Amino acid sequence: MLLVKNITKRYGSQDALSDVSFHVEQGQIVGLLGENGAGKSTTMNIITGYISANEGEVQIDGIDLLEKPKEAKKKIGYLPEQPPLYDHMTIREYLCFAAGLKGVPRKEAQRSVDEIMEKTNLSERRNMLIKHLSKGYKQRVGLAQALIGNPPLLILDEPMVGLDPNQMIEMRNLIKSLGGEHTVILSSHILSEIESICDHIIILDQGKVIAENEVKKLETEHAVNNHLVIVVKGNKSKISSLLKQSKLVRDYTYTREVESGVHEYRVITASDQDVRDEMFVLFSEAKMVVYSLNMEQLTLEDVFIKLTGKEEKE
Amino acid sequence: MTAIYLRELKAYFTSLQGYLYLALFTCVTGIFFTVIDIMYGINDFVSYVLSNSYFLIFVYCILIPILTMRLFAEEKRHKTDQLLLTAPITAWEIVLGKFLASVTLFLIGLLIITIFPVIIAVNGTIPVTNTISGYIGMILFSLCMIAVGTFISSLAEEPIISIIISAVAGIFVLFFSNLVSLLPDGVVATIVFLALLAIGIAVLFYIDTRKIGIALIALIVCGGLITALYFLNKEWFMYGLTNSLNWISLEKRFEEFLNGILNLSTIIYMLSFIVFFLFASVQVIERRRWR
Predict the structure, then answer these.
(1) In chain A, which residue's Cα lies nearest the Cα of B1?
(2) With B196 labelled, which of A226, B29, B103, B272 sits at a CA distance of 20 to 30 A?
(3) ipTM score above 0.85
(4) In whole angstroms, what is the distance from residue B28 CA to residue B62 CA?
(5) Residues A14, A49 share a domain
(6) Which band of pLDDT confidence, cut at 50, 70 and 90, is reported for residue A211?
(7) Is the same domain home to A39 and A65?
(8) B207 lies within 8 A of chain A by CB
(9) How far is B139 from chain A (nearest CA, A)?
């Protein structure tokens, strides 16, 4: 659906993007992650043809954006970070204007605008001036505009920004419902949102792609085998001394008392191998009941911090 | 293009801008008509009202800049240009849609003030040929100035900047031949003038590319052209500068229409002038993508 090949964008002598490449399959919902200034918006602006890259190419459904910009842009719906709205227009007027811009035939436009307003819950406010709408509604109008013309590829730059928790849930459900029928690329700072909406992640750092994979695979890929979380029933000092004496353990920290007499420890094992079996035997020989013994799971946030090195920087 | 044209036209009337423009245009023309034609009993609307210097300054240094100020500058300020530039339309369609909307509003105003020559015609006689050619001239000259305003708006980041620069451009165009008459003729003056022009071009290249090498190449090429021109046509360097500048003067050509002369070459020149500035606006928009 989308192929981004070796794009580089320079502002003066500064590289905003450097040799960025990725591809997105049809129907995927892809999250573009990165810190401020990582190049997310620049990437989106290049894909949509708002700005041009100094090097590289962008293909949408096999159509080169530079060679056939009109055909390529017909396949894109774009919601920029600040929705491009005209304050003095009503929602309906604005969406009809967007339909005209995208070349939707007039007869079809009315029906299409009504359908999209229904889908984005804007029908009740169709005749309200945009300047009188709340931030959440403005965001929805921006999304409705992106949906006009039924483009197969949707690019949404920070669609959740400035929304209250209820509006966020609505927007999340709306975007989720668009997956499958549309290919969606969205950027956000809210990692939990990305994790819940997207099935694929691209992480940008200082204008470069530093990771690209499915969310689960990314979490597993960057997980470390030697971090275990153990929940054991028994005397706290006995458990601690057992861990201290064991050759399997390099280091450990007591985390919390889960319930009365049941303790949780975070253990770093001596080897990189999975030693859960040996750990279980260790505690069972000491006649202690192991409630759970898991490898530590990384969240997307952990992966993000690990890859962008934010923790070290701070 | 139709969508942009209709939106722009509607935008004039959903804000004060369109009403303010039409009110000022008709009101001020009415005052000039009353003071000149009615009070002095003159039956020539074109030669005495449309040719009046104060009227021209008012129209081209205040009204036309009001008409064109927000065409692009406002889009940039509100970031709505992202909608236009990512839509499946060309930069030409955007520029033409906006230009034609301004032209339409101008023509609506012109149609309203047609009531004044009609009043003269009903109550007496009117020089019909002069009036028609004056109207054609006014339309073409105004289209040229709207094209210049469109170009300035495409460059400006704020509408207020656009209106100020357009006003200065209006004064420059209206008093171009007066400025040219101040220039001394002769080889040295011509070479100094062309050299300053070459430096100006080189500076523009530098501003655009931020590369001193490209600016120097532009300066060398311009210098080469000036030298070649000098050896090919020395006579032109003696007397040709002011003649050439007068030839490109829009205001001189507008005067022809006001005097009842319909010259095909003038019409073609003015149409080319419009196309040039619309083309320049398109280039500004396209260049912005690459910055």
Answers:
(1) A101
(2) B272
(3) no
(4) 12
(5) yes
(6) confident
(7) yes
(8) no
(9) 29
